[in-house]
Specification:
Oligomer: single chain
Radius of gyration: 21 Å
Order of helices and strands: HHHHHHHHHHHHHH
Largest sheet: none
Number of strands: 0
Shape: globular
Structural class: mainly alpha
Distance between the termini: 29 Å
């Protein structure tokens, strides 16, 4: 395999377009958490339990849940190498720059979690980014080996949890269902009340959600950071056509193992009649999700080669260039639609309706991102994060752009 050549100081359009794709997948999942207080409780919302509702849940779980945040995590790791190159071009110390960047990312994420969406991923990325900073000199093979170990440990843990769950008496499951129903009702009341009640509810849920972040998202996200770091050192997305055999293997792995594993996860999540089966399905889903995320990456690159000169590719790339701003904008719009900040639609929109809203929101973000970037060098939040990173005020108006 040929050695990587130094990168030119220009953006890689494929990286931006992949971020744009990942943003849509993340929105499809996140809007479900805004639409119903039953999201993530392991029970079906009694207001939407018809065949179409469940089929929509199945589709989202099959194709979107646990996959697109992994793709975004891979791109975070890949972009880490671009940050290294940017620091070298600026003749600036890399570690202080990244520490400032991660601190800024954590602060933005904390505000996002408290005021807009308790399922925030930015604070997790900020903390894991420090871990990646400590590992950034790691070789490609050790990085990939550690990534596999992290996923395997996560899958093993949840497999053990599924076994332990199967040993619980049936009465405990019934009591748990009653408790979850009360929890959903309390959350719905809070989210429909006042903006202050929304913030208080977020703070309550943040005190509980850390276990999900620590034992589900964090190890898998760090694993994909490491995969992205290894790919970035090879500059694989700059020379994507040189890796056609690898891309074919990713597609095959996704079709042979990733998609069946995702189907098991989706079926147990939507139609599973016991929490033990749901947790077992989660373990299978965690094992197969990186494979399906890899297949999505390979499929997207193949499509980009056909669409590169078209409008859709350009719109996706512009949307991905300001991914952080768009991620926060998605949460702001959903918070206004579903919570006490605005229309209070939580609990009244079907899963299919939520999916349609996600498509509309993202469809509007595509031209909005292009309009903004025709006039500005960065997205608004990217501009702020860049200022923190380089400890200076970057340009505001467009005159060409580089990586943060």
């Amino acid at each position: 395999m040929k050695a990587a050549m130094p990168s030119p100081p220009t953006r890689i359009a494929d990286v931006d377009a992949l971020r744009g794709c990942a943003l849509f997948g993340i929105l499809v999942v996140n809007i479900g958490a805004f639409a119903t207080p039953w999201f993530g409780l392991g029970l079906t919302d009694p207001a939407f339990h018809g065949s179409v509702d469940r089929a929509t849940h199945f589709l989202v779980a099959l194709l979107f849940e646990t996959k697109f945040y992994l793709l975004f995590s891979f791109l975070f790791g890949y972009s880490f190498t671009l940050q290294m190159q940017a620091a070298a071009r600026a003749d600036a110390p890399f570690v202080p720059r990244m520490l400032r960047r991660q601190a800024g990312l954590w602060l933005i994420g904390a505000l996002h979690a408290v005021f807009l969406f308790h399922g925030d991923i930015l604070t997790t990325y900020a903390v894991l980014g420090i871990v990646l900073l400590a590992l950034h000199r790691c070789g490609e093979r050790p990085a990939l080996a550690l990534a596999c170990l992290l996923v395997a440990a996560c899958v093993a843990f949840w497999s053990c949890m599924a076994w332990l769950q199967s040993l619980q008496p049936a009465g405990d499951a019934a009591d748990n269902a009653v408790a979850m129903a009360r929890k959903a009702a309390a959350a719905l009341a809070a989210y429909h009340a006042t903006p202050a009640a929304v913030v208080n509810q977020h703070l309550r849920e943040l005190s509980e959600i850390w276990i999900v972040l620590l034992l589900v998202q964090a190890p898998c996200a760090l694993a994909m950071f490491l995969c992205g770091l290894a790919a970035g050192k090879r500059e694989m997305l700059l020379h994507a056509s040189d890796y056609l055999p690898l891309r074919r293997r990713l597609l095959q792995a996704g079709a042979v193992a990733g998609l069946p594993g995702a189907a098991i996860y989706a079926w147990t999540s939507v139609y599973g009649d016991s929490q033990a089966w749901q947790v077992a399905g989660l373990a299978v889903g965690l094992a197969s999700a990186p494979l399906l995320a890899g297949a999505y990456l390979a499929l997207a690159l193949a499509l980009f080669e056909r669409l590169r000169d078209g409008t859709l590719f350009a719109l996706l790339a512009d949307t991905g260039r300001m991914a952080l701003s768009n991620y926060l904008l998605q949460s702001a719009v959903c918070a206004w639609l579903f919570l006490a900040y605005g229309a209070r639609l939580m609990g009244s929109v079907s899963p299919l309706g939520a999916l349609a809203l996600a498509a509309i929101i993202f469809g509007l973000q595509l031209p909005l991102s292009r309009w903004w970037l025709r006039r500005h060098a960065y997205g608004p939040v990217e501009w702020l994060l860049r200022a923190l990173t380089i400890a200076a005020w970057p340009r505001w108006r467009r005159a060409g752009a580089g990586y943060l």
